[in-house]
Amino acid sequence: xxxxxxxxxxxxxxxxxxxxxxxxxxxxxxxxxxxxxxxxxxxxxxxxxxxxxxxxxxxxxxxxxxxxxxxxxxxxxxxxxxxxxxxxxxxxxxxxxxxxxxxxxxxxxxxxxxxxxxxxxxxxxxxxxxxxxxxxxxxxxxxxxxxxxxxxxxxxxxxxxxxxxxxxxxxxxxxxxxxxxxxxxxxxxxxxxxxxxxxxxxxxxxxxxxxxxxxxxxxxxxxxxxxxxxxxxxx
Length: 235
What we know:
This protein is α+β, with helices and mostly antiparallel strands. It has helices at about 5-10, 15-40, 45-70, 120-125, 185; strands spanning about 70-75, 90-95, 100-105, 145-155, 160-170, 175-180. The chain has five helices and six strands. The protein starts with a helix and ends in a 48-residue tail after the last helix.
């Protein structure tokens, strides 16, 4: 049985998720600013325009950030070895055993499955099976890959803000989440298996600092014997 959460933790860098959070929050603010500054629209059309601009800005931001962190965008949107094609940026991350195809999607609200489209429908099929391929490079999907989404939900009360960011894995029937976890909680998994650090030197050499078994009482300098003078010379 695959541990889906651990598979993503093993393949997807923590710094990537942090950078995606910063970038996508910034793009949401930018979309709101553009609409308010440039367009004279009624509230309904303003919300619709902002939603379109926000998604496109976030989608491009996602594409740029994943590449900076070693993600391999699917070449020409084709999942090699299959008849599946995607029209949104999906990036593959290499894991120790299982790879992860990471996509981006916006949710209508927190914990709600994002709208189904051709790209996401193609992606979730990876969560059941992926046909074997002759290609073995890191850019090509592999038979064991899983498909996950970096999800955002806009804040309905505060314009330009994001209510929740989460990591989600949708079942192949596109009916429910196999995994859904807020980004804040998910990030805690990166330190969960880190062994407790022992005392180390400040230079990162890894040498252990040992405390003396017995502590000596402090003796004022003026009352010390010559052999215990401060500079250690015995003078």
